[in-house]
Amino acid sequence: MTLPLRSPRESLGGFVILPRLIDKVRLRAKGLLPEEYHQNLLRPVDPQSGLYPLDGRFLAFTGLDPAALEAAILRLPDDQAVLSWVLERSIHRTIQEKNAWQESLETAPPDEKRTAHRRRTYPSLAHRPDIGALSPFDLIDLDEGRTLP
Length: 149
Prior knowledge:
Layout: E1 11-12, E2 15-16, H1 18-29, H2 54-62, H3 66-75, H4 79-89, H5 95-106, H6 112-121, H7 136-143
């Protein structure tokens, strides 16, 4: 799949996921975001259901309201303006905290439940013996046709 979405690894102001989130919000507003991306767009983390979408992880890390963030992305002219808005309204995070958070997203230990879910969700990647060890960023990049770093 080729979409004008940045990798979740790309960062803005030290926040991974943010550039991709900007892309998704803007594409949805234009009617260009594929339907399968709508469900988790700006969806908060829900530990009771076990849902931990990346957008929700970003929202939890920054303390931002999803509706307010969406409105800002649609109203502001570019990435730098969105970043300024985020920095003014989010929980202050040091670069060390941002780096540690990124590391935690990329190095979560594999488990059987997650591996089985990934085999169902990414059938084109299910044959990979390392699928359980792949990070969410790896899976998204592979699914969208990007090579792994």
